[in-house]
Specification:
It contains three helices and seven strands; from the N terminus they run ββαβββββαα. It is an alpha+beta fold and about 170 residues long. It is about 35% helix and about 45% strand. It has one domain. Strands 1, 2, 3, 4, 5, 6 and 7 form a seven-stranded antiparallel beta sheet that branches.
């Protein structure tokens, strides 16, 4: 547990995947945006950098930290790190028509966090101790509910993105 702004940041889930092949960069991020909106996350883009290499390929580094307040006491946050490397535009023919796609490698990490007392209302040492006892023994079922919710959200986002990328391989076959 890490102290943050008076509250506690508790990391408890981390998923990662790598994909290499054809995909639509635009569709990949559209799916990510739609998923965040559907799950009521506020998106915060911490970093978005694009590098063009001498060979003409691109590398894109993105770090998002979407969050949503579930109550005045609990807040769910994710850390999404995506590195797209060797990204190149390609044109393929499918069903007699030409389609513009990208070829490259995606490395992604999705971490889930639960912020407890994120507004820092229980900030003094005595209040912190009381809150810790309360969270462990009285409020444990409610805290577990939000742990499970964050784990489910990270797992669902991971499954959504990997399913899109894996399905794209079969779509192009």
């Amino acid at each position: 547990m890490v102290s943050w702004g008076g509250g506690e940041k508790q990391k408890f889930v981390n998923k990662a995947f790598t994909f290499e092949g054809l995909f639509s960069y635009k569709d990949f991020f559209r799916i990510l945006d739609v998923w965040l909106r559907d799950k009521f996350y506020d998106k915060f883009e911490k970093r978005n950098e694009e590098f063009v290499k001498p060979d003409g390929s691109k590398q894109i580094d993105i770090e998002l930290t979407p969050w949503k307040k579930t109550t005045d006491y609990y807040k769910l946050t994710m850390k999404i790190e995506i590195i797209v490397s060797n990204l190149r535009e390609v044109e393929i023919e499918q069903d007699g028509r030409k389609i513009r796609l990208q070829r490259g490698k995606i490395d992604a990490k999705i971490g889930g966090y639960l912020y407890v007392d994120y507004e820092g209302r229980w900030a003094t040492p005595v209040q912190y101790f009381i809150r810790d006892i309360f969270d462990r023994y009285v409020n444990s079922r409610i805290t577990k509910k939000y742990y499970d919710m964050a784990i489910d959200d990270v797992t669902d986002l991971y499954n959504t993105l990997t399913s899109y990328l894996n399905m794209y391989q079969y779509k192009m076959a």
